[in-house]
Amino acid sequence: MSECPHISSITLSAPSYNQTVHREECTQCFDDQDGSEGIDVCLKCFNAGCTRLHAALHADKAGSQHALAVNIKRKRKPIPESKRDSGEPPMKKLAIREEASEAEKYDFETRVRCYACQEGGKLLENSDKIQPIVQAVLASMSSAQQSEVKAWEEEITSCQHVSSLEQVAPFKLEPSGLATCSKCDLKQNLWLCLTCGALGCGRQQFGGIGGNGHALSHSDETGHGVAVKLGTVEPEGTADIYCYTCNDARLDPHLAKHLGNFGIEVSEQTKTEKSMTELQVEQNLKFDFAMTREDGKELEPLFGPGLTGLRNLGNSCYMASVLQSLFALPDFANRYYESADAQSHAFLCTSTDPSTCLECQMIKIGDGLLSGRYSVPRAPETDDAQFSTPAPSEAAETRKDPQLAFQQGIKPIMFKTLIGKNHEEFKTMRQQDADEFLKHLFETLERSVKSAGEDVGVSGFKFGLENRLQCLECKGVRYRTEEQDALSIPVPTKELEKSMDVDGKEGKVEYEAVKIEDCLSILTGEQELEYKCPNCKKDVKAIQSTKFATYPDTLAIHARRFKLVGWVPQKVDVPITIDNETLSLDAFKGEGKLESEIDLPEIKDDPTSPNLPEFNAAAMAQLEGMGFPTIRCQKALLATGNSDAEAAMNWLFGHMEDPGIQHA
């Protein structure tokens, strides 16, 4: 091959530690480094593109400085049999097994190509200028890993023992004193006491790095509670911090100052070991759901268009259920997969990083779930593969063959990172509520609209709820219509019996099944409440009801399966049945204001008035997430000074038996 003239004209540099490197999968589809063609990573900005389309498209749109890319293909090495003793005790919080490094688990094949030399990319010979950049890309933490680690780190906070840390008089720790544990000869998994500078090994990590617990014993003997794990210190001033007093991982915002007390310059440190967060991510992602039915029989794998699974991201059940449901609907399938706009967006998108473009990521999800390209049996070289992969001509056909492995599925990490950005809950790795996520997704999609009248697939869910209030003395009425995109229904609970476990002890509580029509009847039924009538100018009795003002094309229902247990709301497993294939809502339709009815005057701070104050958004989201209707949340916030969710929640619990409180 001849020398490429663009190597000398393009300025390249290795990615920094915190720079986003998309080296696992294409940013605009789910083609990845494990596929037969691998993916191309731009050596200028480290965007990843598939060899089918998106790599060449990126080079064309980004310009000549982005012409060089490295193609990465990864193949699983043979997996040795586990040597872990089955008699070992179960792993605990800090006893996390460290998996082998990526280089130990996989073989990588890299080829550099130039998209400026020829259409489709011309393969280049090894270059002394390019190879160091390629190796830096392979050694970097991928964008997926960065997102997972960052999400887990959102769970870690500081504590009073870190913030009020008192250290001994400053002195310099020599490098020789940081090489091994002060009480044994271990050279890894070392923790430095931030109070006195003593160095001790951590606790044993089953199947991975050893430890004799000398850092813990030092803390027990001296009362020094805070330690930092050497090898995880980064130049930016972050590292693994553990508070033995709290017995939990912590953040130290003043780590540079605390390490400086011992003559350790943070800016000169290099990360050499996996952090506990990275190890926790590895363990969490190893969990897989049992592919069995309630009767114990194994599920039969399905393959083909519209039959693609979503892989577990550690806490992503809520997201997977919402996305699978939405993209099974014609409106969403057309909007983000089949339409001309969806097909042309990649060519027209102006974002320099497709991973940050919501439209790109929604179309990527649509293509991933509906194309069938990723709905194929798991390849034999991937983790947990049991059976061979059929020929490509067969792979796209739908079949039920129990002798085939389950599909690998797609990992919507980029989508999860983007949709959770700047959201207090969805940016973390905590378990979440599917109804809350649906609302957040709809709101985010609607905020992304750039032109008036643009439909982002949400319009078919919208409907009106008619709230009617009538004073029983003057007969005045007030109507208010709220636009909704999901219906929250109350679910009555009636215990049948408690099942017994094998030891004869009480087990799971069984509940009587409830018809969905009964839930709707409770929601739309009339409720009497106390009301200060602006017309009568006194406290009176009033009747309040909620009915449908308009119907949606698709009705999303949130079942409020909550029960107070010791004044704490807990979800209960109440079966909800739909007897007929068609659910009629005619009985729950409002009639609107009649000509003979007289309007009640509007008053300030009346929860039934359309002229409402601005409510605490965070508190409203938290209360509604617990299943309380919007108007009841507003009442509670008004009654408690519109301050915070906890005060409003306590007010709600204290007024559960008030007339009308069970209904908006």
Concise structural overview:
26% of the residues lie in helices and 17% in strands.
Number of helices: 20
Strand content: 15-25%
**Strand adjacency order, main sheet:** 2-1-3-4-5
Measured distance between first and last alpha carbons:
75 Å
The CATH superfamily name of the largest domain is: Cysteine proteinases
Rg, nearest Å = 30 Å
Could you tell me the number of beta strands? 22
CATH architecture identity of the largest domain: Alpha-Beta Complex
Task: Outline the structure in words.
The termini are far apart. This protein has 20 helices and 22 strands. The longest helix is centred in the middle third of the chain and has 14 residues, at 434-447. The strands form seven sheets. It has a five-stranded antiparallel sheet. Strands 7-6-8-9-10 form a five-stranded antiparallel sheet, covered by helices on one side. With 664 residues, it is of the alpha+beta class. A hairpin with a 2-residue loop joins strand 20 and strand 21 (568-571). It has five domains: 6-85 and 99-140, Zinc/RING finger domain, C3HC4 (zinc finger) (Herpes Virus-1); 160-282, Herpes Virus-1; 317-447, Alpha-Beta Complex (Cathepsin B, Chain A), CATH 3.90.70; 462-601, Cysteine proteinases (Cathepsin B, Chain A), CATH 3.90.70; 613-664, Helicase, Ruva Protein, domain 3 (Orthogonal Bundle), CATH 1.10.8.10.
